Amino acid sequence: MAKTSGIFNFPPFSSSPSPSPAPSPAPAVDPQPANDPPAAPRVRNDNPRTTSAGFDPEALERGAKALKEIAASPQAKKAFELMKKQEETRQTELSSKMAEFKAMQAQAETERQRVIYDEQKKLAQQQAQIKSQMARYEDELARKRMQACSLLAENEHHRARNQELVKMQEESSIRQEQARRATEEQIQAQRRQTEREKAEIERETIRVRAMAEAEGRAHEAKLAEDVNKRMLVERANAEREKWVSAINTTFEHIGGGLRAILTDQNKLVVAVGGVTALAAGIYTTREGARVVWSYVDRILGQPSLIRESSRGKYPWSGFFSRGLSTLSRGGEKGSKAQNGFGEVILNPSLQKRIQQLAGATANTKSHQAPFRNMLFYGPPGTGKTMAARELARKSGLDYALMTGGDVAPLGSQAVTKIHQLFDWAKKSNRGLLLFIDEADAFLCERNKTYMSEAQRSALNALLFRTGDQSKDIVLALATNRPGDLDSAVSDRIDEVLEFPLPGEEERFKLLKLYLDKYIAKAGARKPGFFSKFFQKQQQQIEIKGLNDDLIREAAAKTDGFSGREVAKLMASVQAAVYGSENCVLDPLLFREVVDYKVAEHQQRRKLAATDGGSGGGGN
Fold it and tell me: Could you point out which of 122, 249, 361, 513 has its C-alpha 20 to 30 Å from the C-alpha of 161?
């Protein structure tokens, strides 16, 4: 047994199969049987502990010696059986441990996948909730701003128009009252006589007709009463039987289906699973579509700061808008070519300078050179926005219009919106002219005490995006107070253009332009492909005795008017003409409206001067 227990100290031979014992134990074991083939010739080996093949045969020799000793022992068979059982036990333990390890590994992997799925689900839900809240907040802000602006403009317009209409209606009512009194007395007696005769004839006719209709209705009712009763009874019976049969059939089908579902467990499981899967699919589809659409709107949609743009809200909408605008403006090309700058009437030197800038901007874009930023300043209503729009059109650029007053209500979101705006502008293939109206609202001097931290951050964001000259964006700022702009903003301006109030010659051209737009072409269809199908013909205004001398007289009276005030003046003339009896514009009505608007303008200036004086005294 000492030899048998010593055998387990040789691990290299523990895994090898046990040799089968001999049929009868031999008294002695020959280490090298006589029938073995003769040994091969030995190769010279310089290292005595290794063979020519590169390994040490000493361990192999010791193992062979141990095997010979075991085979010579009388307990060899038991030793080999014990070794075999121990090896099988070890293999069984190793297999069970491997199976347990694989089961633990699979359980750990399942737990890890479940935790990852739960975290991703929670993150997606939180992101969807935050995005929906932001979208609702932005929509609410935009809707409130638009409602406030539209209500203010509409109230102001209605007030002015109501005052004019009241005055014209009073005068018109006086003239109509005089004419009515002159003619009413002549026809009053004849009208009374005619009305009396007509009333007698109508009363007689009505009496005869009523008697005949009553007799006919009574006769028809008497004849049709029995038939109607019988038909109603038959129809009611048929309808009752039909509904009873339909209800019985429906309940039979429903009861059979429920009975089949409740009695068959597989059908019940399938029905419940189908309803659950349908509800889950509908909910998942709705929420997924909402998330995808919000992502598409955030990536491809027009930024909320943009109020007007030639690109459209989405990239694909620009093609349709440009095509429709090209068709609708097909007949306006001749008039714009004659004027050269659309409806913008400016000082000749200023208009020439803007045309030069348009040509330079177009050449800059074709040569892939950096664009130059611009500053437009001047009184309100002098054509800064229209000039920027025409500048973008003539230079072949897209344009986008935003207002500086929209930045402050955004608060902490202003910086994000500014970066989104510039990222969106860089996607324009034609280049984009970004026009910021009322730029002093958020680009004012940073050392102002009333400037909030959010406005300061928005200003810094815009300065960061305009630090270098861009090959994609032309920045055009418009303000009534250029001195309030921050020095860093002024440093980024390359061209400064002043828009003064129009002179007498410019006012004359503006009056003729808006006379043609609001009066001469008021009832005509606008030229275009679709206008002939969708616009109704309106009553046209007739112009009598209105010549250039009268228009020049009005231009001289309207000293100090801006281009917007001239347009409102001609709109008031149009309203006065529509308020007249025969829709005719004559010199008397034109002078009356012009004098009224001039007096209103002077009164407004006096009020502004009074407010400015009281404010200055307070300071």
Answer: 513
